[in-house]
Amino acid sequence: MLSEAVPGAVASSFVILDKPDELAAYERVWRGLDALALLEAESRDMIKSIAGEIRHD
Q1: Cα–chain-centroid distance for residue 52?
Q2: Between these two residues, 34 and 3, which has the higher pLDDT value?
Q3: Could you write out the three-class secondary structure of the chain?
Q4: Above 90 in pLDDT, residue 10?
Q5: Among 2, 12, 17, 32, which residue has the least CB neighbours within 10 Å?
Q6: How far, rounded to the nearest angstrom, does the alpha carbon of residue 5 sit from its chain's CA centroid?
Q7: Portion of the chain with pLDDT greater than 70, in percent
Q8: How many CA atoms within 13 Å lie on the side-chain side of 20?
Q9: What's the Rg (C-alpha) of the chain?
Q10: Predicted pLDDT at 1
């Protein structure tokens, strides 16, 4: 969970980062998420594949 990974994180629609260490923590989390994310075409293919599996169950 983000609030566990980033000190001071709260569940809200926006966050004001005014301390360099807080900003660095969010940047690390964002880079990690970005590295894990699929490309658009890969996401589409995965969704189609899962939808096909659901239809065949």
Answers
A1: 25
A2: 34
A3: CHHHHCCCCCCCCCCCCCCHHHHHHHHHHHHHHHHHCCCHHHHHHHHHHHHHHHHCC
A4: no
A5: 12
A6: 12
A7: 75
A8: 0
A9: 17
A10: 42
Buried b (16+ CB within 10 A) or exposed e, 1-39: eeeeebeebeeeeeeeeeeeebeebbeeeeeeeeeeeee
Token digits of residue 55: 């239809």
Task: Please give the model's pTM, rounded to 2 decimal places.
Answer: 0.53
Residue 8 Cα distances to 2, 28, 36, 55, angstroms = 10, 15, 23, 43
The single residue listed with the structure tokens 């994310």 is 37
The two tokens of residue 29 are 């989390």
Q: Which two tokens stand for residue 52?
A: 């096909």
Among 26, 27, 50, 55, residue whose Cα is nearest residue 38:
50
